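INFO batch 0412 | record 1 of 1 | parsing
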Amino acid sequence: MKHITTTLLAIAIVGVIGTDGFYLFVKNHLTGTASVRTSMTADSLPSGVVKHSNNYKNGTFTGASMTTPRGIVQTQAVIKNGKISKINVLNFPNSSGITKRINARTLSIYIAEVLKAQSAKIKLVPGTSEAYTGFTGSLQDALNHAES
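INFO prediction complete | emitting tokens
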């Protein structure tokens, strides 16, 4: 009987700690308070960033919609003076709390990296392989349309 009481008490404590952790760390993400920056221009990059030159046609080019396990990703590249000047994320998965949290953290990183590299060939942010695959796949398609 003493062993059962101790086990039940331990389970109750774990439940209380888990519930408290949920409200402290997860609730804001599930209610959609995380913001996602879905557009950035080359002018908004930090000073000192080296931009590589590519020969793209000027214009706005929309990439294919890429299906990921969490949803569809679609990007758009704006080219000025033959260079990537702006990236717009037209569609991205944001239906669940964890997906919103991942996208809020990584989309702006990916956009900044593309503007810096002037290419869809950017590094993966650990833990975001689905977002990375959809983002870079759609963006590469847009850049293929922009190649001169």
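INFO post-check: Strands lie at 39-41, 59-62, 66-68, 71-80, 83-91.
INFO record closed
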